[in-house]
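Example noted here:
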Amino acid sequence: MADLVELKEIEERVILVAVSTEEGSLAASSLDELEELVETAGAVTVDKMIQNRERIHPGTYLGKGKIEEVKERVWELNATGIVCDDELSPAQLRNLEDALDTKVMDRTMVILDIFASRATTREGKIQVELAQLKYRAARLVGLRNSLSRLGGGIGTRGPGEKKLEADRRLIHDRIGQLKAELEDVKRHRDVARQQRTRNHTPVAAIVGYTNAGKSTLLNTLTDAGILAEDKLFATLDPT
């Protein structure tokens, strides 16, 4: 009998890249936050690189010299991809990926990956898939190479390669279906809200930035027992 082979998920090792266009900019602290996002999404940051430029390159995000430097670091550190601190245009995504010959992601893509892994309610899952499809439909051409490199984002969450490789008509049909489902969810929520108003039920809300301690405070006040972790977007759905 043949021996069983244990399959392990490939560890994502990424380099974080930012462009600083002003003196004393917050690029370094922004990359620190991006590192937290990447960790939450399940990847490891192996390096951070910042390029100082008058403006972001419209075609490749980074300048030619910096691209060569990043490409060398990808090879040296055995990185599986890079994550840019800004949202890339379809052209920037495609051109940068061609120049580096590795998977290229941006901050928005990482956040959507996190949302996909954290959403638990029907409404949350619909909203996340809708956001992913809208974002990736506009970048379908630029994402084709990324889709062959471990799914396009960190991990393989979300709509998946086959759905995204389908033509735009099918994607937009799915977007329409999700919008209809979301409207149905909203109608049910409106009914519940009206019922609370009729019953004069007191309503309070805890509002704050991600990882500020909202869930921890709610657990302390009410013993709600909801997930509370020291991670960005650990809790996505409202409780």
Observations:
- The radius of gyration is 21 Å.
- The chain is about 50% helix and 10% strand.
